[in-house]
Amino acid sequence: MVVLHEIRKGFYLDSVALMRLSREVAAAPGIVEAALMMGTPSNAAIMRNAGLLDEGTEVRGNDLVLAVKAETEAAARAALDDAIRALDKPKAQGDGSTAAWRPHSIAAAVKAHPDINLALISVPGDFAAAEARKALNRGLHVLMFSDNVSIADELSLKQQAREAGLLMMGPDCGTAVIGGAPLAFANKLQRGRIGIIGASGTGTQEISCLISEAGQGISHAIGVGGRDLKKEIGGITTLMAIDAFDSDPETDHVVLISKPPHPDVAKTVIERIGRSKKPYTVCFIGAEETKLPPNARFSATLKGAAELALGGQAIGAGFDVAGQASRFPGRKWQSRIEGLFAGGTLCAEAQVILAASGRKVVSNAAIPGVPKLDGTKDDQRDRLIDLGDDEYTRGRPHPMIDPSVRDDALRSALGNSDIAVVLLDLVLGYGAHADPATHLTEIVASRGKNAPALVASVVGTESDPQTRSAQVRKLEQAGIIVAPSNAQACELAAAIANSAAR
Amino acid sequence: MPDQEKQPYQSLLTGKVKVVNVGLEGFVKDLRDCDIEVVHVDWAPSAGGDPQMAALLAKLGV
Predict the structure, then answer these.
(1) Is A349 in the same domain as A484?
(2) Which of A193, A217, A409, B43 has its CA 20 to 30 A from that of A394?
(3) Which B-chain residues 14-53 have CB contacts (< 8 A) with chain A?
């Protein structure tokens, strides 16, 4: 086996462009493994662990590192040469053109366009806090999509933002919709009078899509980042978002979604909600029902939160869980559910629903009360895997962008005779993969006749670039049952698995 | 709350959003498809790729 690498000094490509090029290189004849990464400290560690970069080779954050492991030196050299030729092609602009002037910094952009008011930051985590600080220093609100930012940096940025009256959404803020602007992984939603404050990206997407597809709409969805309601941060952005919705004439009802907050922070936030004149739906996913003020109601699930915000309108009322389950005659040796999720909050909602239906559940992203997955045990419990968790995404894009993160686990589940149901999610919208349904159906096409039942939900809208109904049709044609919501997919999975166990 | 007392974060919801995009270039097309004005920064790591130095320079306002 031969490992070769090439280092381009001072050459930057974003992670999606690097992923595309990595795939091309990895597919070349004789290549075993390929990595194209910026030489940030965290990426350098990944490449060293994979044996693609030796200890003696120094790289820096503005170096592009190309590394290949191949069967022969000739194959490695040919693949590297092809990659370098691809890198040297002129860069295309986001709009397809190659010519326009582009600023090299936030300062230059603001100087040329003084009416810019928001910075969308998705650079590698090692540099993200510095860019956010530059944006705040110039009076811009920030949405920080980047993760791997320290909690100390998060606190300092949020304190600076609060002092300046600016909204600091993130870090690790997957989605927001401000005045119809889809920021990061957002869906094309109907405009309406329901506001969302989300400490969870896919939770916000599921609720906003269910509301939009049910015929109502979203005024704004403010992302706060997954750690905003931890003790260290104290809900700084959440409290500012409540203020903002209080004074927004377009918003009549607000939904707040988060993992269970720190008790002190929950108390502060709930007390603040009690002073609002607007009705609230609170979904602390995985938390016990929380005591709330008279203007707020609690929901344990995303679907329940959407229904409360819709004034009690039922979602997917025509979906017959028992009828669907009866199509799958139980095979008693199959008893487990394997959930393979791109959406972290969808994985959390699955834990809530399956645990409430009496099933024994483990997860790599366990909610309170659910045991953490221990890969060393021969486990007969339902395994619910969040494939967006750091252990799967370190050095590679999120499974919503690159659904192949799920492929190996899915192939393995399809051939596992213990498993009754594989539970899946597809997340559509801006920023997401262009056609995740086709990718998924290609993987499941070769499954055997005794393979587990496949149950999925599709987070998205008809107006999304991927068109929800077209994605659903592709899945159904491949024999995958598609539920109207993640919650109903979980209920169906439980019903099938319970009938198999009898 | 009277309008004159509004903080910038409250006005963000009632005004127009104009975005500077720093990082993933795909977000530019998504915003333009929704008629949102966006300026893309041709970004590269500052301070020679040293994250600690980049953070320090940002704190100093450089």
Answers:
(1) yes
(2) B43
(3) 14-34, 36-46, 48-51
In sequence order, the 6+-apart residues with CB closer than 8 A to the CB of A502 are: A330, A332
Identify the bridge partners of residue A109 per DSSP, sorted by sequence position. none
**Would you say A130 and B58 are in contact if contact means Cβ atoms under 8 Å apart?**
yes
Q: Which residues of chain A have pLDDT under 50?
A: 96-97
Cβ contact A131:B42 at 8 Å: no
Among A69, A91, A60, smallest CA distance to A22 is for: A69
Q: What is the DSSP letter of A403?
A: G
User: What was the ipTM of the complex prediction?
Assistant: 0.89
Residue A449's domain comprises 321-501
Res B30: pLDDT: 92
β-strands A168-169, A141-144 pairing: parallel
CB A290 within 8 A of CB A266: yes
A368 lies in the same domain as A475: yes
Whole-Å CA distances, B57 to A63, A78, A352, B23, B51: 19, 40, 45, 19, 10
Q: How far is CA B25 from CA A92, A104, A184, in A?
A: 10, 13, 11
Examine the fold and report which residue of A271, A299, A315 is the final residue of a domain before the chain moves on: A315
End-to-end alpha-carbon separation of chain A, Å? 51
Question: Mean pLDDT for chain A?
Answer: 92
Domain count, chain A: 3
Give B2's contacts in chain A (Cβ within 8 Å).
Answer: none
pLDDT for the residue B2: 47
Of the CA atoms within 13 Å of residue B37, those in its CB half-sphere come to 11
Which of A109, A126, A431 has its CB closest to that of B51? A126
A131, A167, A178, best to mutate vs chain B, most B CBs in 10 Å: A131
The radius of gyration of chain B's CA atoms, rounded to the nearest angstrom, is: 16
Q: Which residue from A10, A16, A141 is facing B12, i.e. has the nearest CB? A: A141
Amino acid occupying residue A401: I
B29: helix, strand or coil: helix
Largest CA distance in chain A: 72
